[in-house]
Amino acid sequence: MAALVAENFRFLSLFFKSKDVMIFNGLVALGTVGSQELFSVVAFHCPCSPARNYLYGLAAIGVPALALFLVGVLLNTHTWNLVAECRLRRAQSCSTAAGFLLLSSVLGRAAVAPVTWAVISLLRGEAYACALSEFVDPSSLT
């Protein structure tokens, strides 16, 4: 019986080790959804000013997404491994294919949070409606 439990535990640990990137991306997306909900409740209030709605709505979608992307790139250990390796070798013998694969891995992982932010922002529709309200004639709504 103990061997069966140990075997099942080993299988589960190997399964989760092989899916660690997917689990991490899911946790990042879940955290982003939570922070977007918090941002919508606490910080987002459409100014209802025809001159500022468009920029405010786009900034509410784009600026946090850009910040999340930059944080994702900076916190990735592969970014600093790539920078250190290229500094060490003075960019003379950095393999183009290996560098491209490592850079695409960094950018792909860093893009999870901003894409989630933009999608959830657009699905909620508050920032989108705020941005596009600048181009709607109020008399056409009555």
UniProtKB/TrEMBL annotation:
Main location: membrane
KW Glycosyltransferase (keyword) present: no
Claim: Cell membrane is one of the keywords in the record: no
Organism: Carlito syrichta (Philippine tarsier)
Protein name, as recorded: Calcium homeostasis modulator protein 2
Family recorded in the similarity comment: Belongs to the CALHM family.
GO BP annotation list: ATP export
Subcellular location, record wording: Membrane
A UniProt-annotated Pfam family: Ca_hom_mod
Membrane-related topology note: Multi-pass membrane protein
GO molecular function, one term: monoatomic cation channel activity
